[in-house]
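Worked example

This section walks through a single chain of length 438. The input is the sequence exactly as stored; nothing has been trimmed or padded.
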Amino acid sequence: MKKSRGRTGRKRRRKHLKSFMDGVNCSHKLEYIKLKKWLKERGFEDSNLRPAEFWETGRGLMTTKALQAGDLIISLPEKCLLTTGTVLSSCLGGHIVKWKPPVSPLLALCTFLIAEKHSGEKSPWKPYLDVLPKTYTCPACLEPDVINLLPKTLKKKAQEQKMMIQELFRSSKAFFSSLQPLFAESTGTIFNYSALEWAWCTINTRTVYMKHPHRECFSLEPDVYALAPYLDLLNHSPNVQVKASFNEQTRNYEIWTNSHCRKYQEVFICYGPHDNHRLLLEYGFVAMDNPHSSVYVSPDTLLKYFSPLDKQRKAKVSILKDHNYLENLTFGWEGPSWRLLTALEVLSLAADQFACWKRILLGDVISARNEQQALDTAAKICQFLIEETQHALLQISQLKRDKENLKTQLALVEMLHSEDLKILQKSAEILCNLNLGT
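Given that input, the structure is written out below as tokens.
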């Protein structure tokens, strides 16, 4: 008797563990019931997708039937999409049309989101707004202490992103004030910086690409955004392939899969072949074992390994700058990139070889000595970046103990550095084998 009860217990435990790994269905939650009802009223046919919580990715969509390559994952009617057309047909439309200089499509969408969120119960978009994240983890939203722990090249981009939103806020104040007749409360209170930051992140992380014809009432920036309720619950995986576009015939935004997906598993789409730095910058997350990931070498780090006494150093740096070889120099899963080795070969040129720099840019080998020197320097840079990454991970673990409130943000940056470390260690191994080979 005991034996069989034990086996049933094990079976039950296995089943529980399996359901935990697959994801926990969240369809019964009120916010999703309301969202599905709202979508149905706009013509959305119930698909095989269910909102669920997943162990690794958090909130996402699971499928209730197995998907094959070539299957349609989701088809969202145009009526469900939030675009600049939606904004113009709202009470904001008249104010936007009159405002000079014209606002950008991005600002129009931000303004609409803030205004609708402020409307609360009165907003026809409430069921969608209720399932949007309350906060984001894009670098622009990270605390300065956390931004400081980002890799050099990403830290610079994060600061630029923050400044860009600050500038958008500064330049939009007069436009926001012009909307005062629409609100009982002061527009200064409604359209504050944190509201704009939230709206900007919502659009930046969640819109699908959809080209709209240019309208005179908007500035010349491309109008290519559409917020797609429910569809935007689909998470990214670098290992799947999908086809996504607006179907002019059916007037639906459609996503077709080129991959298989088992029943009750999370359905993924691919946002593009992005590395982790780009994923964090644009979407606020990091992908584990991302095949597209790489670690960037800043120009400062690169030049640290070449003597300032080299008479041709200035000319070499000039050549690299002119031919765009000081940016996007990386280590990847397959070792140093061709661009990085090319830059190192140019910087390693001996005085009597300097005239051959053009041949290096064309992919020629100038001499075994030049090639070896470039590989040696790549190994040194790689080792330096490994130590720098390990130091950052140490700082993060100390901060995690001291600053409870920053735990989520720090965990994200920790994951980025851990993934970078894996790539650098793999690159170091490849360089070591190359040196052994020579």
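What to look for: The chain has 17 helices and 13 strands.
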